[in-house]
Design a protein that fits this description.
This protein has 176 residues and is an all-beta fold. It contains no helices and 15 strands. The chain has two domains: 88 residues, Sandwich (Immunoglobulin-like), CATH 2.60.40; 76 residues, Immunoglobulin-like. The strands form four sheets. The chain has a five-stranded antiparallel sheet with strand order 4-3-2-7-8, with no helix packed on it. The protein has a four-stranded antiparallel sheet with strand order 9-10-13-12, with no helix packed on it. The chain has a three-stranded antiparallel sheet with strand order 1-6-5, with no helix packed on it. It comes from Acanthisitta chloris (rifleman).
């Protein structure tokens, strides 16, 4: 999230029409097109974050600036050329780095939290804990995962939380 993403579409000789068809999870479809016989481009229902500076002699790459969850979805480049029709298809998945914290609650229990991540993070404790993480989904598609350390024995001094997520792996210890 927040990065720029570029999707390639390989040009073919004797191109007649090139179309990007975009179906995001949020909002309506968007279409970008180029017609060789008129040397014209057209955009329909595309946000300003989608940039396409098509030149038939260079490339047909699509740039998505400041990628957000709303841009997640199907992106298809269709090319019609005298030799045939071609298609390249992408599914853009947006990763959201969770906000990570480890703290002691008011009862002195270690709590590990991976807030507002996408996909949900996996939260584990290093030493024996029978904790079951709680997940809370948010309207924007992110998920907060919270885990309270439940010790098997009273000999545990340090509690170490590990968080696994496609955008980050994290480990931190705490004494409560």
């Amino acid at each position: 999230i927040g990065s720029n993403s570029q999707l390639a579409c390989k040009l073919r000789p004797n191109l007649t029409v090139l179309t990007w068809k975009i179906s995001p999870k949020v909002g309506g479809p968007c279409t970008l097109g180029y017609r060789a016989d008129l040397n014209t481009t057209d955009r329909t229902n595309c946000s300003d974050s989608i940039n396409w500076k098509f030149r038939p002699d260079l490339d047909a790459a699509l740039e998505i600036r400041q990628v957000g969850i709303a841009q997640e979805g199907d992106y298809t480049c269709e090319i019609a050329a005298t030799e045939g029709n071609y298609q390249e298809r992408y599914y853009l998945t947006v990763l959201v780095h969770p906000r990570l914290s480890l703290y002691c609650d008011d009862r002195g229990t270690p709590v590990c939290e991976a807030a507002a991540g996408k996909p949900p993070a996996q939260v584990l404790w290093v030493v024996g804990s029978n904790s079951t993480p709680e997940e809370e989904g948010h309207k924007n598609g992110t998920v907060t995962v919270l885990s309270r350390f439940t010790e098997h024995s009273s000999n545990v001094i340090n509690a170490t939380c590990m968080v696994f997520h496609p955008a980050v792996n994290w480990s931190k210890s705490i004494v409560c």
